[in-house]
Predict the 3D structure of the following.
Amino acid sequence: MLSAHVVKERRGITVDVRIEVERGESVALIGPSGAGKSTLLNCIAGFERPDRGYVIVDGQTYFAPYLPLPRRNIGYLAQSADLFPHMSVAGNVTFGLKSSKNGSAWVRELRERLDLDGIWNAPAFRISGGQARRVSLARMLARRPNLILLDEPFAAADRDIVRTLIAMLAYWQRTIGFSLLIVDHGLDVLKRVSQRAIAIDRGRVMQSGTWEELRENPATETLASLLSPL
């Protein structure tokens, strides 16, 4: 579903990572800070352009040549909700959709399941942080992406919100069938979301496998230290 080879020069490090994700699979990226995990996600999403390599999603080439962001069927969720503050919740969720889809049954389902009815017409700058996370999740899912990238979306969120968002992601992954690639510092969160992990350090893949395989036979001392809480 996702096949990528990303080569990106960064200050003090060259990210050179090959990765493949099957349709409907959930994969975690783990590694120390500065290892290149977010750079890899940004290059797949299209926020950054790789210096070399390729990105192919569901048979469509995203790089090279570079495919513009609006044409990429990718959902992206980061630590910040990044909503348009001057727009209503409804406007944020349906932003970029064709007008015929704004009132679709799919949008109504997102609205209901994410408990957005009470704030649907409220301006985004007036809603709480927890509500903003649900709105950003609804906006991401509104286009029914076939690949979702999560870059620490649960950071600083309380446990109830994290538990709710994880349950909803699992439900919609079954519904839509998207593939998922996630970066997060919470190993407990990653284990609940993903079936396997890819360990990256200094811009290279160190190891790949199930959580049990990585825990029982870590490739490096750094990886062993990261996995020690498991």
User: Anything to note?
Assistant: Strands lie at 2-10, 13-21, 26-30, 52-57, 60-63, 74-78, 147-151, 179-183, 196-201, 204-210. Helices lie at 37-45, 89-93, 105-113, 129-142, 159-176, 187-193, 211-216, 221-227. Residues 28 and 197 are 5 Å apart (CA to CA).
